[in-house]
């Protein structure tokens, strides 16, 4: 009996020891020949490397990646309306003549650039010939009378002639000067300038019947309405010879609905773009018509834009975005600098070795620019164009993938 009890005790101890050993084996980690610490370090290093894109200056230039500094700027809430480019009415000149005659010479054609005062053509006119002849006659008579009056003055002072004779001579001189001035004013009224009038006494005889047609403004010839031999002036059918337009500044004519008119006023900036946005410029509101159109119930708004390169062509349709509410922000970048990486907005900041992806939070967008609310500091240099190539580099698999 005692022996059986002893055997059962030994068996129980052995069974319990087996269960304990099995539990230890199940809980022990499977050995891979590597410790846990290096694995964690490697995983962390891999995460850090996925934000960096190594790239030297040569590769940056080859990839045509543009660089720019993030910094303060202005963003605006804009009212977008259609518009059309028209010439500035203060820079349009219709060249006419004030006499009857015939076109004898044309020196400018459509498309030619002209300077103010430059000769566009020549008019042959009997009227100008008569006016110049009258001017020459009155000038000769006046010169003679002034000389006689000067002589009579000296004689009267020496009491060689009666004072009454000197008074008559002085009156005649005043009348001759008045006739000379009238003849001169007639030439000016016909369109001659002071230089041409003064040169009349020494001008060749054959040119006395000719009058030069000069450009009143600098600009471009957009219309030429006469040919050589065309009769012009008074009863003729050609009151205009040329139409000149100075395109150094042009107007943007817009139509703004009555509901939006309260937020539009003179002096506001307007971003102008043609179809496709290939050409973009900034204009300034010059005029807001207080009277609404009866049919459209909208007001005419005119903005002015500089056009030194002649990019803005009258007649073209544009999209106008009027800045009705503007505010300054500390950091602005071009939209081309922003990429979506793993569902988040990011920019690529220039580093000593290349670029580093930086997650950012965007604010208000204004055309081609956008506010960066957080994630970027003023003055940091970022990729502003072709940044998609950096995103592609970042997405390439590495040796650890």
UniProtKB/TrEMBL annotation:
Residues 249-323 form the CusB-like beta-barrel domain. The keyword Transport applies. GO terms for cellular component: membrane; outer membrane-bounded periplasmic space. One of its GO terms (biological process) is response to cadmium ion. It comes from the Bacteria. Residues 130-189 form the CzcB-like alpha-helical hairpin domain. Residues 91-237 form the CzcB-like barrel-sandwich hybrid domain. The keyword Metal-binding does not apply. Keywords: Cadmium resistance, Transport, Zinc. InterPro entries: Beta-barrel_RND_2, BSH_CzcB-like, CzcB_C, HH_CzcB-like, MFP_Cation_Efflux, RND_pump_MFP. Residues 331-391 form the CzcB-like C-terminal circularly permuted SH3-like domain. GO terms for molecular function: transition metal ion binding; transmembrane transporter activity. CzcA and CzcB together would act in zinc efflux nearly as effectively as the complete czc efflux system (CzcABC). The CzcB protein is thought to funnel zinc cations to the CzcA transport protein. Belongs to the membrane fusion protein (MFP) (TC 8.A.1) family. This is Efflux transporter periplasmic adaptor subunit.
